[in-house]
Design a protein that fits this description.
alpha/beta, Rossmann fold, Dihydrodipicolinate Reductase, domain 2, 2 domains, 7-stranded parallel beta sheet, 5-stranded mixed beta sheet, binds 1,4-dihydronicotinamide adenine dinucleotide, binds the ligand O=C(O)C1=N[C@H](C(=O)O)C[C@H](O)C1, NAD binding, diaminopimelate biosynthesis
Length: 269
């Protein structure tokens, strides 16, 4: 009998890294083949099971993705932009599946990420949940139906440890609304309003970010028209939805031609 495909988890001590380890353990279709942390991290060289507060599991935490991919088909990566670009190079060299949940990339970093990953099956999404990816499609449709006379505002809320704003999800929703309006988001986005901002520009797509406590991730797309409002909402209450989406992407990506994909491809939306 063939062994299940091996998966390497990066940022394994992080919120998503821990959740991925848990979901892989619960899966009968994938096995944990490696665990990485940033160079200098306390967990490097230690047994992952012990570091997570359990019993030894024989997976020693490392920092070299190329070495880890010798025994794995895929890497699931929820870390930070610079780390993810470096991982894309290693995934490209190995011809591996690289599932990327990391957010907060600049436009230049996104270009670099795409070229660094040549040779890999690169699947990236600012949100891996089924609900959000469906909401993205609905947002595009509603924006197209209502038109730019209805003001669009994306409001997101996350835990206080999040380092990027607007969230990757908020940007996906903003992109979808811009597509629905037939414009480029970069031409109409209004971010970080403060002080005497002047009146709202017609056709603008606004972003607001709330940070606090342990909020997993909440997103509203508000369409404000004359005399009425429509609000589309997604609320995440469990990070497992992102981890399970990422593992679904791994299974989908194995055997696919190298290239760049997103969750729309994985979910067939
Ligand atoms: N696409 C999605 O569905 C989701 C995306 N995210 C994104 O995932 C990223 C991580 O989120 P969290 O787990 O909450 O953050 P976190 O801060 O808890 O974890 C990040 C981990 O990455 C590690 N790391 C940083 N550089 C590294 C390197 N060079 N090599 C190996 N590990 C490295 C850190 O040490 C840390 O353990 C963020 O960008 C977040 O926005 C989070 C949840 C869902
Ligand atoms: O950092 C997080 O936590 C999350 N990040 C993603 C984002 O930036 O949208 C997805 C989710 O909302 C949680």
């Amino acid at each position: 009998m063939e062994a299940e495909p091996g998966v390497v988890v990066t940022g394994v001590s992080g919120r998503m890294g821990r959740m991925l380890v848990q979901e892989i353990a619960a899966s009968d279709r994938l096995r944990l083949a490696g665990a990485l942390e940033r160079p200098g991290h306390d967990w490097i060289g230690q047994d992952l099971g012990l570091m997570l507060g359990g019993t030894e599991n024989g997976v020693i935490v490392g920092s070299d993705l190329g070495a880890a991919l010798e025994g794995a088909a895929a890497v699931v990566d929820f870390t930070a932009p610079a780390a993810t670009i470096a991982f894309a190079r290693a995934a490209g060299a190995a011809g591996a599946v690289h599932v990327i949940g990391t957010t907060g990339f600049s436009d230049a970093e996104l270009d670099e990420l795409g070229s660094a990953g040549t040779g890999s099956v690169q699947i990236r999404a600012g949100n891996m949940s089924l609900g959000v990816n469906l909401l993205v499609q609905i947002t595009r449709q509603v924006a197209a139906a209502l038109g730019p006379d209805w003001d669009v505002e994306v409001v997101e809320a996350h835990h206080g440890r999040k380092v990027d704003a607007p969230s990757g999800t908020a940007l996906m929703l903003g992109e979808a609304a811009a597509e629905g309006h037939g414009v480029r988001l970069s031409d109409v986005a209004e971010r970080g309003r403060d002080g005497i901002t002047g009146a709202r520009k017609p056709g603008a797509i606004g972003f607001s970010a709330i940070r606090g406590g342990d909020i997993v991730g909440e997103h509203d797309v508000l369409f404000a028209g004359p005399g009425e409002r429509v609000v589309l909402r997604h609320m995440a209450t469990d990070r497992g939805i992102f981890a399970r989406g990422a593992l679904r992407a791994v299974l989908w990506g194995i055997g696919k031609a190298p290239g760049r994909y997103d969750m729309t491809d994985v979910l067939g939306l």
